[in-house]
Amino acid sequence: SRLQQEALDRVSAWKSRYGPKMPLAVDCTAELIRCKVLDSSGRLKSHELILSYGLALVRFVNLITERKQKMVSIPLRQLAREVDIPIWVVDLRHELTHGKLPRLALCRKGCDVVLDWLRKTYWSRQLGNNLCEESEDEEEEQEEVVANAELDNDAWE
């Protein structure tokens, strides 16, 4: 938690220097980590955490897919597929934006999956591929997160 807070402080300093030129992946990572730090602090109520995670997840999906949007409107699900963002994360974004708020557990799972996507897609290239080497346990854990999220997705309907 202390290291995460130090990293957030460093990203805030970068943001003050670079402003809108800050890479989207860095900004999204910081917002998601900030949610995890707030969550572990115990200072926010469940509803406040859902809103915090929700905003970070909505911004992530919108900002990452926005660059691929053409003159003709392309559905978010298609754009997400093109960049390997799980469809259920797009569905979670849709619920956060247009539906009733999901459970905190689903927001936490979404945050973890998105942070993993950022690690594999952005950070591993920045810091070398050693970040992408996953153990079998991590892969099984990831599959379980996706399976649970798909179950939760069915519950929305």
UniProtKB/TrEMBL annotation:
InterPro entries for the chain: Las1
GO cellular component: Las1 complex; preribosome, large subunit precursor
Region (Disordered): 133-157
GO annotation, biological process: maturation of 5.8S rRNA; maturation of LSU-rRNA
Record GO terms (molecular function): endonuclease activity
Acidic residues: compositionally biased ranges: 133-144
Domain of life of the source: Eukaryota
Protein name per Swiss-Prot or TrEMBL: Ribosomal biogenesis protein LAS1L
The species this protein was found in: Phaethon lepturus (White-tailed tropicbird)
Lineage: Eukaryota, Metazoa, Chordata, Craniata, Vertebrata
